[in-house]
Amino acid sequence: MNTEFGSKKIFEFFFDKPIHLPILGDQPSFYITETVINTWIIMILLVVVSIILTRNMKLVPEGKQNVAEILVGLLTNLTGSSMGKDKLGFAPYMGTLMIFLVCSNLWGLTGMRPPTADLNTTFALSILTFFMIHGFAIKRKGVFGWIKGTFFEPVAVMAPLNLISEIATPVSLAFRLFGNIVGGMIIMALIYNALGSILGSVLPIPIFMLAIPVPLHGYFDIFAGVLQAFIFTMLTMVFVSMAMDD
Q1: Whole-prediction pTM value?
Q2: How much of the chain exceeds pLDDT 70, in percent?
């Protein structure tokens, strides 16, 4: 009975082999990874669903239009209650961010790798948040007001610590989301390996292969996935709002 789940298997499970597409000879080149492919699939599906839900919209909503209006209303209200009514212009971005993160985090249920299990994806999103924080702070306060409020409050001697804090913000956002999604993937991979190698030989009862993982998928994929999408979006709204209001 082989119960080994070595580093080679873990590597093969989590890291896809990139597709090498040479543009100008052998170098330079670029790679299309599984993360890129899955991200594009999710984006295409979201665009298609958006088009379907918003086609032939009527003054009095009915059917699928109700779904679209309820979703937009919930996300707009969440943005308004978190950032303030004067910042409702952020609702389209925050809503899109949350929907994309929910779909990305739940993508593991399809058997494919979630885009948010790639540190490149989470860092890209956290860097967007970082630029929004400081970009809109500068727009609201001006350059000198932004420098003073961000780095020299409450006292000037705090500037080095404030600088470290600002740099740490995108790093913590990226690793929090990445760590939770990858952690769930690793646990589920270990569970499936154990079920296949141990229960498959000792208790070859098919119901165990389904009854044991399903509740765990409900927690690690669905609950944790939706929760982490909510947390990332809420932190983005709070950080941007605080930077603009301080």
Answers
A1: 0.82
A2: 80
